[in-house]
Specification:
365 residues; Lyase, Ornithine Decarboxylase, Chain A, domain 1; 9-stranded mixed sheet; 7-stranded parallel sheet; 28% helix
Length: 365
């Protein structure tokens, strides 16, 4: 089977690029001697997870309990569910842990900490620390930290933070500065817990940009990162990797032609409507247009508009788009996590046109 034979739109995953990206991250963290707990929220695939965890000491990170159940069913037991837990979900966690999983949960809430400790089968829990993102978590110096620790009691396993605000950085120095604030904040929280007599064996931080650009990771026990595996245009714009490191693209077919533009069958559902590069140095619309082989034969052509099932490709004036209806193109995405979300499988290639494997994804919550 070749790309020309595939139904569109669909996901194309280049295994050669994927493996290179995984090796780059592993080598980057090896210099710090800190293990990687890869985040599987983007890939949602056991085949990708096996590549990402090869040679790693730790487990994986997930963002849904559906992912936790999927990966546990494929033999991965050490799983961090890195979204604040609700008491209603504790039974589902307990069910997974009763059959061999070791799901760790996350909270920044005093009442939820009490519910965790009171459950008939309490899981280990991390306290979420806010080191600048302003999403979930409490400040490293917040008095609530010790109160939550008391509520969790013996089920407290440590602390976790995520520097999602690293996406606002635009240079290696920006990323290094944010990474240091992330590191210092979560380590300080762990030190406060230990000084008060509480356990903090896990000190977890990470995002792909800060994992790549951190200059020191003293006091951190694990790093979480995920988007680095597939890459995307936004990560390329902020310096996490180059455009040539984007392993995931959307295969699409031309369904209409007009002067200076094409209509394709990949719209907002297939590509997502994430416009993250609108705030980056270079705006790629809804995605960069590549030829069927994944090369930039069409210059700077981009998907300028995205409807539900239609995409409007705007040609680069220096590279006219003279393609017939039915011709296939590939679109490099702005945000690979969101782009992959509506698809149920990957058509895997290895730098060429031949589909060498089909890997399933686990979607839903």
């Amino acid at each position: 089977m070749r790309l020309a034979d595939l139904p569109t739109p669909c996901l194309v995953l280049d295994r050669a690029i994927l493996e290179r990206n995984i090796a780059t991250m592993a080598n980057g963290l090896a210099r710090h001697g800190v293990p990687l707990r890869p985040h599987m929220k983007t890939a949602k695939s056991i085949d990708v997870a096996r590549l990402a965890t090869a040679g790693q000491q730790g487990g994986i990170t997930v963002s849904t309990l559906a992912e936790a159940e999927y990966f546990a069913g494929h033999g991965i037991s050490d799983i961090l569910y890195a979204v604040g837990i609700t008491p209603q979900k504790l039974d589902q966690v307990a069910k997974l842990n009763s059959v061999g999983a070791a799901v760790i949960v996350l909270t920044d809430d005093l009442d939820t900490a009490g519910a965790i400790a009171a459950h008939r089968q309490p899981p280990r829990a991390l306290i979420e620390i806010d080191t600048g993102e302003g999403r979930g978590g409490i400040a490293p110096d917040d008095g609530l930290l010790l109160e939550i620790a008391v509520r969790l009691g013996p089920y407290l396993a440590g602390v976790m933070t995520h520097a999602g605000h690293s996406y606002a950085g635009r240079s290696p120095d920006d990323m290094a500065r944010i990474a240091e604030a992330e590191r210092a904040g979560v380590v300080h929280a762990a030190e406060r817990l230990r000084a008060a007599g509480h356990a903090a064996t896990i000190v977890s931080m990470g995002s792909s940009p800060t994992a790549m650009h951190a200059r020191r990771l003293d006091g951190v026990t694990e790093v979480r990162a995920g988007v680095y595996m597939f890459g995307d245009l936004f990560q390329a714009e902020i310096g996490t990797h180059g455009v040539d490191a984007i392993a995931l693209t959307v295969l699409t077919s031309v369904i209409g032609r007009r002067p200076g533009r094409l209509l394709v069958d990949a719209g907002g559902l297939a590509l997502s409507k994430d416009r993250s590069t609108a705030d980056a140095p270079r705006d790629y619309g809804f995605g960069l247009v590549l030829d069927r082989a994944g090369a930039r034969s069409h210059g700077d052509a981009v998907v300028r508009r995205a409807y539900q099932e239609h995409g409007v490709v705007e040609a680069d004036p220096a590279h006219p788009l003279d393609l017939p209806v039915g011709a296939k193109l590939r679109i490099a995405p702005n945000h690979t996590c969101m782009t992959a979300a509506a698809h149920d499988r990957y058509f895997v290639v290895e730098g060429g046109d031949e589909v060498v494997a089909i890997w399933q994804r686990a979607n839903g919550w």
